[in-house]
Description:
The chain has helices at residues 4-27, 29-54, 59-114, 120-150, 152-171, 173-183, 189-228, 233-243, 250-266, 269-294, 303-317, 319-340. It is an all-alpha fold. Helix 7 runs antiparallel to helix 10 (269-294) and helix 11 (303-317) crosses helix 12. It is globular, with a radius of gyration of 25 Å. The chain starts with a helix and ends in a 7-residue tail after the last helix.
Amino acid sequence: xxxxxxVVNRVVGVLLVAxxxxxxxxxxxxxxxxxxxxxVIAYLLDPFVVMMERRGVRRTWGIIxxxxxxxxxxxxxxxxxxxxxxxRWEGFITGLPAYLQKAKTLALAWKMRILPPxxxxxxxxxxxxAAGQLDKLLAKLGSGVYETAAGLAFNLFTxxxxxxxxxxxxxxxxEAKAGVVAWLPPVRREVLITLGREVNRSIGGYLWGQxxxxxxxxxxxxxxxxxxxxxxPIFNGIFAGLASILPFIxxxxxxxxxxxxxxxxxxxxxMILKVIGVFAIIYFLEGYLVKPIxxxxxxxxNPLVTIIVVMAxxxxxGFWGIILAIPIAAAARIVIDHVRRxxxxxx
Length: 347
């Protein structure tokens, strides 16, 4: 009994520290969001710096060359792509209320057409509830635009601060690693270094792999919707790429906006089937061709555990929780595997 008391105290202490970290992170969520954005960008850019180091370029010059390349791309993006996207975003914002109003009209027409004589009150309540939700959505659309404008100042602050943080993360990477290694207990140092390399390889592979998969899904979806003549193909395609981050349910979420725009625009069952068929092909290729090539090493996570972890981290950390949930779960699995093998009890 006496031996269990220190273990219980240790577990309680770890839980209290975790709760304190989560509470602090929530209170400083904007700062944490900026830091996580910088961390992920640095994680994605570091392989390019390492590649230049292997070719004899000093890390300092490698980072400078990388920033020069990113600066040229930024100039191209702001000069050519930004006006193009801005015009379409303005058209999307101004056209969406009309789409929602038209959807409400179609719903009311369906109500008059298919309302059965039996259970009329229940069906009428269902349609009235749906129409009421559309009215609320229309009312909130304007306020949502104002909230987005209110958060623009912080987004601009993040846009300026993130490149600076990324620069210092890349600059001090080796010093930070050396500092962490120096603090490791000598008896467990080799095991912990091996563990860190496995976690680093797993997280880096996932982030790069998911970035490539999302870009491919976004490109294919945009092209397919443009060919089908669905309105706002670019934003529907970008949404599909982002939705591909979510395991299993991402394909459903990605399909809903194009189905909405397709039906309101054409009111055709054939067009609905075309959209469903296109996304079925895209996600079939993603699941059976793109991901096996991009993700050379599987994350080896249980599907149920994956969904629960994504939901939990998404609830706690929002967008970044969804992004980082699977790599964190994979890192935890690697640690658990080492514990089961008894690696930490040796030496």
